[in-house]
Amino acid sequence: MRVQGSLHWFHTACNEHGAQVYARIQSFIATTRKLKQNTFQELCNLLNGKTYSFQTT
What is the pLDDT of residues 31-45, one digit of tens each? Predict the structure, then answer.
């Protein structure tokens, strides 16, 4: 029982963290679409360590 309780807490914490990560990614995608930028290219740039500038081109 004790192990199950610990795993439940871990599972809940992972779900909350995953939800936060998802929200940040979704927000980034929405911003690139709003600014009419190439979303796929901007995600690739971000994952390759390039900083993102919130400016219209």
Answer: 999 999 999 999 999
